[in-house]
Write a structure and sequence with these properties.
This protein has 13 helices and two strands. The N and C termini lie far apart (49 Å). Helix 6 runs parallel beside helix 8. The protein has one domain. With 268 residues, the chain is an all-alpha fold. It is a multi-pass membrane protein.
C-alpha cells in the first residue's frame, strides 16, 4: 500500500510538470505569433505558477524559438527563397534583401555579444512599446511597399529592433512598429516582421539549446498552435493597434500588482 501511494505521488507530480510544460509550449506558440511580447506573457505565466520549472529552463526557451522559426520558414518559404535569390544576384544592391540584411546585422551582432546578458523586466518598456505600436499603426496612413524603404530607413528599423532585447518590447512588435513608422503598409510590415524574426529565433535556439526532455506531443502542439496563431494574426491585420492598447493595459496592471524587478530574461 505504501508503495502504491508513493508511486501515485510521483505520477501526480510528473503529470503536473507535464501540464505546466505543455501549457508553456501552447502559450509561446500563441504569443510568439502576435506583436505582444512572448517574454512578457512567459513572465506572467512564471508569476502565476510561482516560479515554475518551465520558465527557468533556458533550454526549453531555445527549443520554443527553434520550433517557431521552422514554422515561419515553411509558411513564408516562397518569399524567403525570392529574397535569397535577389541577395546573391550580382549588380542589384538596391534590392529589398540587402536592406533587410542591413536591418538584421546589428541585432545579430548585439545578440551574440550580449548572449549571456540578463535584462530585467520593466513595466515602462511594456507600456512604451505598446503605445508606439498603437500610435504608428493608427496614424501611418501611407501604403508604401517594403521595397520602397531607403537605406536610412533600414538603419532606423535596425536601431529600433535592438530594443527587442528589453523584455516586454516584443521582437515581432518592434519590427512591425518600425515598418509602420516608415509608412509601409500593414500586410508587408507584418510579413517582413515575421521573416526578419526567423534569424534571431534560430540564434536563440543555437545559443540557448541544451539537452532537455522533450517529446513530439509538445513539439507538434507548439507548431500547430503557432501556425494557427500566425494565420489568425494576418487575418486580424487591421486591428493590431488594439494589441498595443492591450499591452499598455497589461503594463499598468503589472506596475500595480507585480514586483517585476526579480524577473529577468536572457538577451538571446
Amino acid at each position: 500500500m505504501h508503495m502504491n501511494l508513493h508511486s501515485m505521488f510521483y505520477y501526480s507530480a510528473d503529470s503536473v510538470k507535464f501540464d505546466l510544460m505543455i501549457t508553456e509550449y501552447i502559450l509561446h506558440g500563441i504569443f510568439e505569433a502576435f506583436p505582444v511580447s512572448s517574454s512578457m506573457h512567459s513572465m506572467l505565466f512564471n508569476y502565476a505558477m510561482q516560479n515554475s520549472y518551465v520558465m527557468q529552463n533556458i533550454g526549453i526557451i531555445g527549443i520554443l524559438h527553434g520550433i517557431t522559426a521552422i514554422v515561419t520558414i515553411v509558411y513564408f518559404h516562397k518569399s524567403i527563397i525570392k529574397l535569397l535569390i535577389d541577395f546573391i544576384k550580382p549588380g542589384h544592391y538596391n534590392f529589398l534583401s540587402w536592406k533587410l540584411c542591413l536591418i538584421l546585422l546589428p541585432k545579430l551582432l548585439f545578440g551574440f555579444i550580449y548572449r549571456n546578458a540578463n535584462f530585467p523586466f520593466s513595466f515602462y518598456t511594456i507600456i512604451a512599446f505598446g503605445l508606439l505600436l498603437a500610435f504608428y499603426d493608427i496614424y501611418s496612413h501611407q501604403n508604401k511597399k517594403a521595397h520602397e524603404i531607403s537605406y536610412m530607413q533600414s538603419i532606423f528599423i535596425s536601431f529600433l529592433s535592438l530594443f527587442a532585447f528589453l523584455p516586454g518590447a516584443s521582437s515581432l512588435g518592434t519590427y512591425y512598429t518600425a515598418f509602420r513608422a516608415c509608412n509601409i503598409n500593414r500586410k508587408e510590415s507584418l510579413d517582413y516582421a515575421f521573416i526578419l524574426n526567423v534569424i534571431p529565433s534560430i540564434g536563440a535556439f543555437v545559443l540557448r539549446f541544451t539537452y532537455v526532455e522533450v517529446n513530439l506531443v509538445r513539439i507538434f502542439t507548439c507548431m500547430f498552435v503557432y501556425l494557427f496563431a500566425l494565420i489568425l494574426c494576418r487575418k486580424l491585420i487591421n486591428y493590431l493597434y488594439l494589441l498595443g492598447i492591450y499591452r499598455v493595459i497589461i503594463g499598468i496592471w503589472v506596475c500595480q500588482n507585480i514586483n517585476i524587478q526579480k524577473y529577468f530574461y536572457c538577451a538571446f
